[in-house]
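Hi C.,

You asked whether I'd gotten around to modeling the 506-residue construct. I have! Everything is below, sequence then structure, no commentary in between.
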Amino acid sequence: MKPPYRALVESANAAVFILQGTRYVYANAAAETMTGYSAEELCNMDFWEILHPDERDEVRLRALSRQHGDDVPANYPIRILQKNGSVRHTSYAASLIELDGRPAILGVSQDVTEMEVRRRQVEEQLRQAQKMEAIGTLVGGIAHDFNNILAGITGNVHLARVFAGDAEKSGAKLDRVEQLSFRAAGMIRQLLAFARKDMVRMQTIDVLAMVSELMARERMEIPRHIDLSFETGMVTGLYIEGDTSQLQQVLLNLVSNACAALEGVADPSIRVRTVLFAADDSFLQEHGNPAASEFVRISVSDNGCGMDEETMCHMFEPFFTTRGVGSGSGLGLSMVYGAVQMHGGVLDVESEPGKGSTFHIFLPRHSAQRQPRSFVPDTELKLGKGECILYVDDDASVLTVGCEVLRSLGYKVLSADDGLMAAELFRAHADEIDLVLMDVVMPVLDGWQTAEQILKLRPETRVMFATGYDHAEILQGQQRPAGSDVLIKPYSVVDLSQAIRLKLDN
């Protein structure tokens, strides 16, 4: 008759085995079921043979730690390989025993594969729910901002009709429509910058000129009762290397957040300051020893509601917002943080409930050996000289408006709504066409393929692309013809006229 404990072990639901060294000397029936090997086969095998390869280093480390007397949990998850090659998840516990006067290991394993599968399913469901919640927050914020812009556009279009007989008033309303349209385009660029944080187009920037130009524009956007001021401690010499659109978006986000923080505040004000900042050792150590020691500091301060410590701990997290549903996407400050990091800069925040907030942006100063970017835009409309343009776009409304605009600029226009039609038109009118302007993503033949066919017929043909897709992705396209230019929609008629004129004259 077997001892009671032996019968209990052999009938246990958990796999029980004994190792001496790394060799099996005993395995119960549950161990056979879990591994797929018979007890006889196991007793001719090494422990490492059934252990998943990815687990071996961890198990060795735990064994060594236990030998050195370290406090290591005796129970932990490991994966094993069954005889048929399947992977099983187990909960494993080991104890030191003595067998026949020699040290041995008593191991107990419980197959938890189904529990692990279920756990992963629950985790995936939770991740999906969190993702959908984040997307919902984003969509709500973007919808709110876009609806505000669209309300401004439709209102100004209505007023332009009302003032149709007054050229000055109707023109002002239409100018406002154009401004709002490009503001919407800026939001799209902001989302793309957030999604692809390595997209930076660096150039030398005169910070004073950039901020001055932006503040003049922003004064028209924010409520009149808010006092917006720009102060600087220097007149010239504040240059940085940066991406203009991203840095402008950083400032726009900070000013927008400041406006929101000023709701209900008496005598609300926003101060934007630029100064030259020489970093001392404590500053460099606090911020991880950035490469630069001299910075241009841009500060945006408000006397609004301020933030408590809890809010400040989360303020740079994507989708985190203290505003109500539909009042913001929660992306603004995370974009600010990412953009400053991409520029090798430092971001400091000072805030206290009821006493306002100040965001300090430190950007490495540049010697400006290259010509700084000018912030005085060229607003001259460049007219055509009767040249012929083949214009291609698969969107009927864009095609119609584009043809009318090009004709208003003084060009002859041939049009096509897909790449195949464009290639056929070019074959028929190759000697007349001076420039091809077309979309990239089109049915039948895309822009790259169409250009390839056109350039085979006449290699010297001037080609320009216009696309609403991401600028960086388009420029990385391996099929883009050498020497072709890319315009990103939406673009102003002035920009279009200048780009075409430059292409034709060169």
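If it helps when you're writing up: Residues 388-505 form a domain with the Rossmann fold fold (CATH 3.40.50.2300).

Thanks,
B.
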